[in-house]
Amino acid sequence: MNHPETPTGSQKPAPLNMSEAAEAVRTQFAADHARVAANPSPKAVEELRLAFLGRKGRVQDLIEGLRNVAKEQRPEAGKIVNSVRQDVDGAVTALQERAKAWILNERLNIPQVDVSLPVDDSTPAGALHPVSLMRRVLIREFRRLGFTIYDGPEIDFDFYNFSALNIPESHPARDMQDTFYVAPATGGAFDGQKMLLRTQTSNIQIHAMLAEKPPLRVIAPGRVFRCDSDITHTPMFHQIEGFVVDKGVTFANLKATIDTFLKAIYGRELKTRFRPSFFPFVEPGAEFDVQCTICSGAGCRVCKNTGWLEVGGCGMIHPKVFEAVGYDSEEYSGFAFGFGIDRMAMLKYALPDLRQLFEGDHDFLGQFPVHA
Ligand SMILES: [Zn+2]
After folding, report:
1. Which of 56, 117, 142, 356 would disulfide-bridge 147, Cβ 3.0–4.6 Å?
2. Per-residue pLDDT for 14 more than 70?
3. Alpha-carbon gap, residue 360 to 324, rounded angstroms
């Protein structure tokens, strides 16, 4: 018996049975769909879509196969193929929707935070720098006394830092404050005038008084600069300047103000005192002390057995200062005071060396509270 022969009279490939081919695609799709539907990640859904609906996908193969179908059978085959395409397309679209929910679920499945668990304190919480801490405490206390906060330039004209504060060019007080000078101003109204890094926050007194009319009740915390460095001096340090200008302001008001804020910071039980002193921009002038915060006045190493700690300087604003800013010293009087914020922090936290404040040692700085 001979082998079966190719049907005669036709060189075309045998017509495909599109029903069978379509059924094979459906079966394959059903299996792959079931696998992806169990875990419809966006990646798996997209792979499924490409495998069946992509340019080289299996549905496309069916569509291309239609060319080989006898012309008279083509409409029927086309319907079958189209039905497969629609079913696959519908199923993939449904899976794409589920993939969106899958992403959301993945996010929700991230382990939840149990707020009832004890705090993991292995993460450093950070702390306020003792100078920031003291600055905030001071601002809070002075606000309570009705003071407003004023700011001013760190690089300033000689006029604001010295001349207007009754410290003329040849005044010996200039030697008390070793000054960093910068290049003189060029151009404009201030051409050729000396400029410097302010040696004291008192420059803000002048700026504020030139800008405002009395009554004034101002504090001005800020950085100041002097060529000086040892155990109790750093080239940059922090001062706070305070002043009050109004009708009938007296030395008694000054004493009450200083006494009130020192007690607010160091405690009610500690005494304060005033000693006569000299500053060119006040008359009369004084220095103020607080009873030693370590020994409460009994005498110790920190207070050099005096029982007192020096805090700052103060006095009644000099008429020459009022003259420089155009205030009538017959009508108005005022007081001013200034002290180092760093020194206040040193006394409050019993620090042995001022330079500790500027070394950036985390172990040292970590000991301070987070809130003022
Ligand atoms: Zn002491």
Report:
1. 142
2. no
3. 41
**What residue spans define the domains of the chain?**
18-108, 130-365
Architecture of domain 130-365: 2-Layer Sandwich (3.30)
What spacing in Å lies between the alpha carbon of 291 and ligand 1's midpoint? 8
Residues with CB under 5 A from ligand 1 (ion): 292, 294-295, 300, 302-303
Q: Confidence band (pLDDT; 50, 70, 90) for 301?
A: confident
Instruction: Give the integer Cα–Cα distance in Å for 174 and 199.
Output: 10
Residues 266-284 have pLDDT tens digits of 877 889 999 999 988 999 9
Please give the distance, rounded to the nearest whole angstrom, from the Cα atom of residue 356 to the centre of ligand 1: 21
- Phi first, then psi, for residue 364 (nearest 5°) are -65, -50
pTM of the model: 0.64
Ligand 1 center from residue 348 Cα (angstroms): 12
Contact 142, 148 (CB under 8 A): no
Sign of CA dihedral 319, 252, 137, 129: positive
